[in-house]
Amino acid sequence: MKILMLGFEYLPVKVGGLAEALTSIAETLAKLGNEVWVFTPSHGHIEGKKLLELEIKVYGGKEKVSVYERIQNGVRVFALSSSLLDNKDVYGPGWEGILSKAVQFGKASVGLLNFLIEKEGKPDVLHFHDWHTVFAGALIKKYFQIPAVFTIHRLNKSKVPAYYFHESHLSELAPYTDIDPEYVGAYIADVVTTVSKSYLWEEWNFYKNFEGKATHIYNGIARDFWNEELLENRDLPREERRRKILESLGLSDGTTFMFIGRFDRGQKGIDTLLRAIELLAQSYPSEFSKMRFLIIGKGDPELESWAQSLATKYPENVKVMTEMLKREFTRELYGSVDFVVVPSYFEPFGLVQMEAMCLGAIPIGSAVGGIKDTIISLDEDEENATGLLVPPRDPSALVQAFLRMAKLKEENPQLIEKMRQNGKRRTAEFTWEKACRRYMRAYKNDIDKAVDFLR
Ligand code: NHF
């Protein structure tokens, strides 16, 4: 099939998990014998040959947009460049900036597709991702009537003034003053997908509006990179790797829990983790003294200073790293720590628990979304357990989970080892190939749907 993908992040441009997902989907589809075109804003990453210069009318003026084409791992990537689309702030500058980017990207995508269709014919399917590409997706659907799949990696639930739709020549889709672009995307699409079954049902209030179109397609995990074979000290026993890495971070050895992610209040649950560490230190000082917490990430300055204050108060136990880590070093960490904490409030799929399991770290995660669907909890099935699920937003439950897992590690190391092995095996069930075979079914609308009355 000839597949046209639209996305706001594409490697090497990366803000979060979206870039990894889009790039893996496109490359795997290409490997499976499809011709894949990706349209993405340059966000300042200009690479490849200049294919085309467009002039588009926007906001009463004219704007020059250049298109650069490159082949990246079998995928034809078209980066759209203009003074606004080159802005390195992927989801900005500001709210107005991102909206204008989305509109400009939409109009320029039509120009580019016109050019390509004239020379090479029309794609068989349009696959657009997240709300930023909705203007582009809706315009392409309107002008070229291509079957369309809309994938939501994370609902944003924001409202956009109708004006932006009028400006995009999409007035027919904006009968009210404020419009949620996710509704528009799902409305114009033939199939709507999201990245885990639990997330779909958790957000049924949204998806129920598109019943009959909505389904889930799990992400995959790149096991070729997140692989123990590639660890620097792969020949050393895990405990020894842990001791060494803790030493390099200025900590003595101990049972190690790691958090890696954005410091925000809405999704990742770092505030629940910080509160749990406080409770643990106060109520269980002797157990706490044997534990180490590595907290990696950045974001909300208040949360950063809360984390730093814990590191100052408990320098033997808590280490905070706010600098960007190389992927290879992150892999070493996963391959050395005992447990990885994923306390998210919601998680459409979630990469962290998958990366952890690939490298034998046991995830302790909230029972939500993709975390719940990928971890087999110790409480559910001891034989096949890969981790422990806890209720979200519950610091005391997290404290109990830390105590329980630390104790288990001392008293039943065989079970811990079994969980590490189960986890590695579990990740093999989430491959990008499997995901893409399902996307290929979605492209033909030959796919099962989420049905409320069968739930
Ligand atoms: O893994 C890629 C990612 C997901 O849970 C993640 C999220 C955004 O929040 O699909 O998209």
Automatic annotation (TrEMBL):
Output the Gene3D superfamilies linked to this UniProt entry: Glycogen Phosphorylase B
Q: Which InterPro entries match?
A: Starch_synth_cat_dom
All copies of domain Starch synthase catalytic, residue ranges: 2-207
Entry keyword set: Glycosyltransferase, Transferase
Question: MF terms per GO, please?
Answer: glycosyltransferase activity
Q: What is the official name of this protein in its record?
A: Glycogen synthase
The organism named in the record is Thermococcus aggregans
